[in-house]
Amino acid sequence: MELRPILSTLRRHKVTACLLILEIALTCAIVCNAVFLIGQRLQRMDMPSGIAEHELVQIQLGHIGKSPDAKAQTETDLAALRQIAGVRQVGVVEELPFSYGGSSNSGLMLDPHQQQPTVNVSQYMGQNILPTLGVRLVAGRDFGPGEYVDLDTAMAALKTGDTKGLPQTMIVTRALAERMWPGKDPLGQTAYVGKDIALRVIGVVASLARPNMLRMGPQYSVMWPIHMTLADGASYVLRTAPQDREAVIKAAVAKLKQLDPNRVVVTKRTYDEARREFFASDRAMAGILVGVIVALLTVTALGIVGLASFWVGQRRRTIGVRRALGATRGDILRYFQTENFLLATFGIVLGMALAYGINLFLMTHYELPRLPGIYFPVGALALWAIGQLAVLGPALRAAAVPPVVATRSV
Do 116 and 20 share a structural domain? Predict the structure, then answer.
């Protein structure tokens, strides 16, 4: 189709055409970045934790102050929880992957004299962590009974500088091992926390996500052999069959209340519930962005329909003349579709530039990654398709105008 008549017509309606182009450009820019953000949220929500998520139950009790018999009480509780029907493993864990709360982190160094840590890691402390959480050990071994130290002992040793009271071994994730010792066997390697605390790697696990992970990143996690109690802020974690979790929660709470009726249960939930709670804001944000995308595309489509309908009404005489000179209904239909395609193309080109600018702003102020190039053609195809569908109704009405009716309106 000859484009010159279409461009000539658009030049006579510069303001209207520019407004539509601007609307399409803004929609393109916002939709491209919104779809990208939705993808980021969904990817974050789908991040593997490295644990047996559907088999875990968490129970946390409230404590005020430090009880002198906290360790003995914890051992009594663990022995009682192991007797509950359906319970496979019981452990004491300070924190779980994807859980709100204070995340323990430290800098890990290859050389104790480094000025800056080689990498920042999240710390997991507690008893019986690997078998309870279902973390897969890919090399080395789990902690032995003689390697554990009490948290109080470790804290006192830190104050006095006596390294004998501190853990001497650790278990690391495969991602951390590859980061610290690329191309080497991590077993037996030594890393340092501060200048004096040397820790030897005795085991490597496939993966273990960091607690309270606020953004995407490598799974740089370590496990220390430190005994924890509920008074230290830890939780009891029970591993059972997925179908037995609710029954195990009720039985475990009843058993703990039986041992001490005055204790307050702060948390009792499955890990699935904990994960859903952690990612609730991500789901909400994804839903809001979907709503924004739908609203913008709807407004843009309505704008195209309104403008095309207005132009059809304004051009009835021109349409009638063209029909009288031999133009078919298909010619009229293609005219309006081509006109809309040109307007959409101008808007998409401008919108891609705006999308890139918005992404640079988000990268600078919110540490988001660069917008992948695949989103530009996808956004362009979506807007072209919406534009063609939106203009189809007015274009069909224009094609249906009989020549005799159009000429009588002169």
Answer: no
